[in-house]
Amino acid sequence: MAASDRLLPQARIAGPMPWVIAIMIALTVIAAGAGLGLRNLTQSARSEIAGGLTVQIVEGRPAERERQALVVISLLDDLDDVAEFRRVPDEELNALLEPWLGPQAASAEDALPVPAMIDVKLSGPMTDKRLEGLRTMIIASAPSARVDAQARWLQPVFDAAASLQWLAVGLIVLLAGTSAAAVWLAARSALGSNHETIEIVHLLGGTDAQIARIFQRSVAFDAALGGLAGLALGLTAVLLLGKQFAALGSGMVAGGGLGPVDWMILASIPVIGVVLAVLTARLTVLAVLRQIL
């Protein structure tokens, strides 16, 4: 084996290979980070609004709107399966509408009537039967009430997030295939440039497995070098993007932060990349040697 090492010093796959692997690993880390962040965001949002519903009193007359709001609050206070509820203050509602209606809209005499809103948190998950029973009971006492499950409002957002997660998975698979193809091409090129030397090694008693191990070590070195560089680039991009989204100040976006397990998954990507590159190089070398020798 030492003789074959000396005969094939040029077997090392240098050139652009470490850079190609670095780019692939960086893109994979970014895609995986985005997918994990979306998963965490979706899980956090689902757990936060599980069992949540909103009661709106859509009534134009202020006195009647207030009366029905108090009736609903009294009903909710008597229900055992209501974990907590909160009437959203009018000042908070006006602040939410101010960007759309202007600062004077809430105090104007002809201002658009703002519904009274009550946030409710039930103990246990929300089901269609449970929601319908609460809606029937509340509307019987407050005809202007509108009862909606919060999860239904965000279902299109959850569906979009799920689609983006599958897109991230598809991108990771595509990048893995592209990396394997790059290693395959590089291995075949190196074998072609060392064809005559490989024949001599065979005449000296070297086996296909011994020659394949030489190329494997070369690929492992290049893949490890490119993997570390790609990991550094990818993690830098993920951290910068995380800071940008954190600056939005949205509670929902804050739920998409990465945890310790997520960072461990991202850190394992270069290791998986090295294993994939070495396996691809070995299979490629053995297949080509069986054809040409």
How would you portray this structure in words?
72% of the residues lie in helices and 8% in strands. A 4-stranded antiparallel β-sheet has the order 2-3-1-4. It contains 10 helices and 4 strands. It is of the alpha+beta class.
Strand neighbour order, sheet with most strands:
2-3-1-4
Main beta sheet: strand number and arrangement? 4 strands, antiparallel
Fraction of residues in helices? over 70%
Distance between the termini: 19 Å
SS strand fraction: 5-15%
Features:
293 residues, alpha+beta, four-stranded antiparallel sheet, 10 helices, 72% helix, rod-shaped, disordered N terminus
Summarize the model shown.
With 293 residues, the chain is α+β, with helices and mostly antiparallel strands.
How would the blueprint of this fold be written?
Blueprint: H1 2-7, H2 17-49, E1 52-57, H3 62-78, E2 82-87, H4 90-101, E3 116-122, H5 128-141, E4 145-149, H6 150-193, H7 195-203, H8 208-246, H9 251-254, H10 260-292
Antiparallel strand pairs: 1-3, 1-4, 2-3
Helix pairs in contact: 2-6, 2-8, 2-10, 6-10, 8-10
